[in-house]
Amino acid sequence: MVNGRDVVRDVPGRLLLSDFLRHDLALRGTHVGCEHGVCGACTVRLDGAAVRSCLLLAVQADGARIETVEGLAAPGAPLAPLQEAFRTHHGLQCGFCTPGILMSAAELIDDGAATTTHEEIRELLSGHLCRCTGYVGIVAAIGEACGLEPEAEP
Ligand code: FES
Ligand code: FES
Question: Which atom of ligand 1 is nearest to the CA of 53?
Answer without folding.
Answer: 2
